[in-house]
Amino acid sequence: MKKLLLFLPIALMLSFSVSDSTLTKKERKFAKDHLKETKKDLVKTVEGLSQAQLSFKVDSSRWSVEDCVKHIAMAEMGLWKAVQDGLSQPPNPEKRAEIKMTDEQMVKGIQDRSSKFQAPETLQPKNTPFKSTAEALSSFKESRTKLISYIDDTQEDLRNHVINFPVGMMDAYQMVLLISAHSNRHTQQIKEVMADPNFPKQ
Description:
The protein is mainly alpha-helical. The chain has one domain (23-194): Four Helix Bundle (Hemerythrin (Met), subunit A) (Up-down Bundle). The chain has helices spanning 2-19, 25-46, 51-55, 65-87, 103-111, 133-153, 172-194, and strands at residues 162-165, 168-171. It has a two-stranded antiparallel sheet. The model is unreliable at 1-21 (pLDDT under 50).
């Protein structure tokens, strides 16, 4: 009987630790892998570019590599704040029926460069606080590292916090995927700029 009483608190602790996990292993791994891959791709793409390459524009209406990096870094912070604001509110699982996209559809839609979106004024490169690509990239790396760590450890009920976002209703987990997909979208844009025949050789 004494052994049973000693074992009971441990069993209860274990059961609570399991039930507190609001993301499946598959969901957690998918988000972590996507966040890591898109971070690596952006950093690898822009590191080592000269200032002439960073500043190059295909035409005056298009963004440069530096503009894209500044936008990504600013959006990384802004989108994460939107997630945090959503999580600060009570769970609203009754809103889940209003979510029209699966995780895969949302990621694919955001990354699809054939669909164009106008960035909000606050996320326009000229309105960011970053003075250089290096400064923006450093901010991006810091934000993304924190986000990966968060997804690795969080027990927040991400699925039952539904957020009304301009592209549609999404749960907090999908918002995290949106952050990752958004950086991928603009990394593709950077590669388009670099593929232009007039892009500086060095």
